[in-house]
Amino acid sequence: MDLIQALRAYRxxxxxxxxxxxxxxxxxxxxxxxxxxxxxxxxxxxxAWVVSPDRERVxxxxxxxxxxxxxxxxxxxxxxxxxxxxxxxVREESGLERIRPVSEDIYSVExxxxxxxxxxxxxxxxxLHLNVTYLIEADPSDPVRxxxxxxxxxxWFTRQGAVDxxxxxxxxxxxxxxxxxxxxxxxxx
Length: 189
Prior knowledge:
Elements: H1 3-9, H2 15-29, E1 42-51, E2 57-63, E3 68-70, E4 72-75, H3 82-94, E5 99-101, E6 108-114, E7 117-119, E8 122-124, E9 127-138, E10 151-158, H4 159-165, H5 169-187
Parallel strand pairs: 1-9
Antiparallel strand pairs: 1-4, 2-3, 2-10, 5-9, 6-9, 7-8
Helix pairs in contact: 4-5
């Protein structure tokens, strides 16, 4: 299923997801180029909420640019299968090899504001990440490692500990809390 079909089939969890999914869908349907970074104002990214098999723990990386604990993920960079992007980013950013999607369906949708910053010595203007998140499972006993130049540490947290570890209020209050709320909702079914 392509991204437009997946977004049309997606059932938003809250008003934020409803509005963000509609905006991402509008941009995709307009033909705007979003899969690469050539579009300086907005481009597609994929993230992973990496959980333990018992769904009690969440994997986070200490992100060098944002100076905060955060989920794993990255730019599509031309790849149209965002689940594969999320899986690639988890492997690259954590060193984990044995990972699996809990589902191939979209887990969450967000439009994220990225402040201007310096990356590899070059200035990157403020822009939007049109983000799709997938729920990924991994074994906390498998070894993890940081990715030099991108993150400084990779560590498992309790679900609430993952939220509390972030120093970014918007992510803590609106993204990571939502991801955990969704996790609780599907665990109860």
